[in-house]
Amino acid sequence: QATIVAVAAQKGGVGKTTTTVSLASAWARYHGKRVLVVDLDPQNHVTLALREQIGIGGGPLSELLTDPANTLEVEEIRTGTEVPELYVTPPDPDLLNAEDGMAHRIGKELVLRKALEITRTHYDIILLDCPPNMGTLTVNGLVAADTVLVPAQASMLAVSGIDGLFRTLDEVGGQLNPSLDLLGVVLTRVDGRTRKSNEAVRDLVKSSWGDVVLPVHIGANDTLAQAQLAGRDIFGFAPSSRGAQQYRELAADLLDRFPK
Amino acid sequence: QATIVAVAAQKGGVGKTTTTVSLASAWARYHGKRVLVVDLDPQNHVTLALREQIGIGGGPLSELLTDPANTLEVEEIRTGTEVPELYVTPPDPDLLNAEDGMAHRIGKELVLRKALEITRTHYDIILLDCPPNMGTLTVNGLVAADTVLVPAQASMLAVSGIDGLFRTLDEVGGQLNPSLDLLGVVLTRVDGRTRKSNEAVRDLVKSSWGDVVLPVHIGANDTLAQAQLAGRDIFGFAPSSRGAQQYRELAADLLDRFPK
Ligand SMILES: Nc1ncnc2c1ncn2[C@@H]1O[C@H](COP(=O)(O)OP(=O)(O)OP(=O)(O)O)[C@@H](O)[C@H]1O
Ligand SMILES: Nc1ncnc2c1ncn2[C@@H]1O[C@H](COP(=O)(O)OP(=O)(O)OP(=O)(O)O)[C@@H](O)[C@H]1O
Ligand SMILES: [Mg+2]
Ligand SMILES: [Mg+2]
Question: Which of A35, A256, B27, B84 has its CA 20 to 30 A from that of A78?
Answer without folding.
Answer: A256
